[in-house]
Amino acid sequence: MRKSDFFFELPEHLIAQYPLPERSASRMLCLDGTTGRIDDRMFIELPELVRPGDILVFNDTKVMPARLFGRKASGGRVEILIERVLDSNSCLAHVRASKAPKTGTELLLDGGFRCVVMGRKDDLFLLMVLDGRTVDEVLNAVGHIPLPPYIDRPDSVSDWERYQTVFAKASGAVAAPTAGLHFDEAMLERLAEKGVEQAFVTLHVGSGTFQPLRVDELAQHRMHSELCEVSPAVVAKINEIRQRGGRVIAVGTTVVRALEAASLEGTLMPNKAETNLFIRPGFQFRCVDAMVTNFHLPESTLLVLVCAFAGYSEVLTAYRHAVERSYRFFSYGDAMFVTRKPYS
């Protein structure tokens, strides 16, 4: 399949720039992967769609305040996006400047912090924080929430809470696992009261999640790598649920990738490693039965994943329906509940 197969027209006004006042107040489009049926519902109705004995699997990654601003010693402005913290005082980052800084260049950050370019790794810069300070100190003092590029505004105080799930725990992401943003404590309690189990994996979402497909043929695309962990306890819990006939419901495409990467040998196994799994039509899902997800960018790997899960024509039909009904798109937008299309 080709990149252009995953294009759809999206009016700019449907891209959500702010979250709704309440996390669970979003609309929710339901797509039955077996029949192709589409239903317009509200996210607050999610407990009606799950069954006692199912398990919801969440991504507990926490978004870092990973965007920094500063200047070169020569005066040119720089914008830094931390991609990965390596140790207490070094990290890999994207650096946006009028001219790419060379190794040895000192960068003067807001708040009087300093760092130096130590080298390059592919398209990332290796940075070291100076003066005995740590990366965490710098981020907590002057870092900004790295809102996605399609949110056309600076981050605000409210984003520190709302661009973070209520169950965020493991710091390391530069983008939120956005399907999880719809869940508040009241919703989690309602699901538990219904007898729906909960489990958590960790996948640190990287900035590559926003990159469009850059090649025409899907088979030529090379996925960015992200750190993920599926613990032995979670594996045991999911396997028990499956043996009892319960469904595994992934909250977000990141959870789908984490669980399916840990199932590539045929059964779900504990896994703590980087994954660059690119799920596209024809992929055989071994673990996930349904998912909660947001609406994704045209020609993106995330849209490709959802099409692989619920059917190419079914998903694009659902997206056209969402546009016609003025659903809100992307990170702060509305949700979908999608069940897997059976194998033919």
Fraction in helix: 10-25%
Which shape, going by the Cα principal axes? globular
Question: How many H/I helices?
Answer: 7
N-to-C order of helices and strands? EEEEEEEEEEHHEHEEHEHEEHHE
How many β-strand runs?
17
| Class by SSE composition | alpha/beta
Low-confidence stretches: none
Biggest β-sheet: count, sense, barrel?
Answer: 9 strands, mixed
CATH hierarchy, class of the largest domain: Alpha Beta
Total domain units: 2
What's a quick, concise take on this entry?
By secondary structure, the protein is of the alpha/beta class. It contains 7 helices and 17 strands.
Overview of this protein structure:
Helix content is 19%, strand content 28%. The chain contains seven helices and 17 strands. With 344 residues, the protein is of the alpha/beta class. It has two domains: 3-63 and 160-339, QueA-like (3-Layer(aba) Sandwich), CATH 3.40.1780; 67-142, Thrombin, subunit H (Beta Barrel), CATH 2.40.10.240. The chain has helices at residues 135-142, 159-162, 185-193, 232-243, 253-261, 301-310, 312-324; strands at residues 27-31, 38-42, 55-59, 61-63, 67-72, 77-87, 90-97, 106-109, 114-121, 124-129, 170-173, 197-203, 226-230, 248-251, 271-275, 290-294, 335-339. The chain has a nine-stranded mixed beta sheet with strand order 2-1-17-16-14-3-12-13-15, covered by helices on one side. Strands 5-6-7-10-9-8 form a six-stranded antiparallel β-barrel. Strands 4-11 form a two-stranded parallel sheet.
